[in-house]
């Protein structure tokens, strides 16, 4: 259990490349660190560990306490920093333990999940996100299908093709909706900064060639067919804005489709902390500090640039967080700036920006939908219902849109559909519109009702006593509404 | 600021020059503004409703949608609540005729309320309260534990008293508000979002001649301030300070549950104690109820924290704890989300409805605190009756604008 408000501990949320690097850097700078992640192991999505093998591939320095299977469900501002509310234990099992930690230096490295765009049939079993397919392959050695089509945008589709091939799926093609040759490769700054990446990409090109996997630009999956699961897929050529080129539609037999249209950062904790957000990403300064004192952000929360850049950002954030927490090295010195990581973040940031420009999501996707295409799968809200919510019910704000259409109110709370709903209906701030979640993760009513854990918080843990001074007078008329 | 526009040159128009100037502009498209606009347009007035954000996205989107008589003791607010309870179903029925069933769907459900005591101390206040309500014409049936268990099988067995209020009802606030706005539009009125009311313009006589907005001046005969918890800001900018304060509330929403888990609006009689501790920063009087989607709403807290919307875990914990006290069966149910909003209240905790004697043509409809959804129908009705000079449905005097608690404290705060 943590100490009180004066706790010098750095708390890092997310144990992907950014969070691990942050934890390591903060510990090396002399700060005690708590590293929290919802997964059972280290590595996050990128280094998805094989859950069956369960070996710990990553080692962390002493001074880092790793809290696996732990979800941060709320973030509260307290006078000297932030209080992080955590539940530990398998999400669906009983007996998760609660814990609250106060910290003056919080590093958010909650990453991003891949974005799926809706199209007719995307709700059929057999359609997954590229990330989920990769997790199944890398984490459990399971293949999503025998004949798989990959579609989306961005270089991150390529490692997915590799993972699927490795577990024996036949990858029928990688469909890239943009035309990257006309994009970032021709951008001098991006090209320069991404030099390391071009080598990586060449490796994937060889893989595609070896397995005879066609790589098609300006194409995508526009429909999945089947009754109980995907049996076939229609793909088509796209114009620059992703409108379907008429007559280019082709049907192909497939039992799985994996889609990934960039990434949506996992923003709720950053939003809870009131970090400034621009274009859907948390804004940070050169020390990875957000607009909120004591809160740092690293990795894909701040922009999409791959694992290496994320780790460098983590190093910078962890070092800065250690300074904020008042850490001193063994010799009593304040931690110095991580010069190399800082330099790499600067050039890597250019790469990430170039990447973002080269692989945008173009508005033409909205034309792939039909009236009855589901947009929110949890609550089964179709495109037509969203349109009607706007036209007939003035649902021009996030909350009214949710309440009128029910989009985003299901189990995923808009994590999958939020951005798509916002863009389809023209809601303001489409990147964050659905990320306002005071409860950052679901928890059981009994868990929420538990008295505050132990000495974690300065306030007395006792549950409020029932009122004792009950007067028989009727309550004033205002106190008891609702 | 009040900007006199007595000069002969017309002020720039925000509205389309082809459309005639509205008789009245309603600032704020929450359920209260929508209800006023609906009633005024039904009386034949040309109405324009504007909102700085999206319609029904303010406090109204935070409301749980309870239309209650059970929680009000005899007095002016109960009278307004009873009028509103009668008005809502009539209004929705007539709008169904006018707009069609889909256009007027507001998930009205007269499911009834159940107020229960779980301690010996709470028995006397609850039964005394119910008796007083019966005297005011509320149906408040004291029932035994068996009957309570029949009405609500999953309810805790440890009841010491229970009162059934068959008149309690609920609706979905955003659907209700947008139904009202659809009617305004259908009658030729206008609803504009993204337009902020900044003040008013006046004739040489001092009466309102228009409303100044972020989109320009809209000439009109009168303005209704229905800005909810922000009504004080708009009133001050129009030169007529009004004491309207925010009181925060949080609500928990569970995942969908099997039908019949929670059947009525069930709440504990604790609120009697909560009132006794009048000035506490935090009070909760838990209401547990299911919605048509199968989720259960657990609300809500009352916190005096200004417009601060940051999460407070102690508040959520308290709501959860009380809900479990009523429905132990909910222990393993997942809470999917929490949300909150700011109730507008006047220092004397009564709504403010009527014309402002300090500024002819300026009307207010706000301060409904935790009951604006329920009270909206009668509020629109009352305001329109005052406007047209018809016999008002309830005595308007307790809600008048120039109560010292509202205008003097408003001046002090401004
Ligand atoms: C948690 C919670 C639960 C509740 N539960 C219930 C319940 O069960 N039953 C019940 O009856 N009541 C309930 N209430 C109370 C109810 O929600 C409110 O009384 C009601 O919504 C008030 O409506 P309104 O139209 O006055 O305010 P709002 O809905 O806030 O509308 C005011 C509008 O004015 C706009 N606005 C503000 N300033 C300007 C400006 N300068 N120019 C233009 N537009 C402006 C805002 O954008 C907003 O849309 C609850 C409240 C809360 C917070």
Automatic annotation (TrEMBL), chain A:
Keyword terms of this UniProt record: Oxidoreductase
Name of a matching Pfam family: Pyr_redox_2
Annotated spans, Disordered: 445-482
Segments forming a coiled coil: none
Domain FAD/NAD(P)-binding: residue ranges: 9-304
InterPro entries cross-referenced by the UniProt entry: BFD-like_2Fe2S-bd_dom_sf (IPR041854), FAD/NAD-bd_sf (IPR036188), FAD/NAD-binding_dom (IPR023753), Metab_Enz_Cyan_OpOx_G3PDH (IPR051691), Opine_Oxase_asu/HCN_bsu (IPR017224)
Biased composition (Pro residues): 450-476
Protein name: NAD(P)/FAD-dependent oxidoreductase
Native source species: Streptomyces gossypii
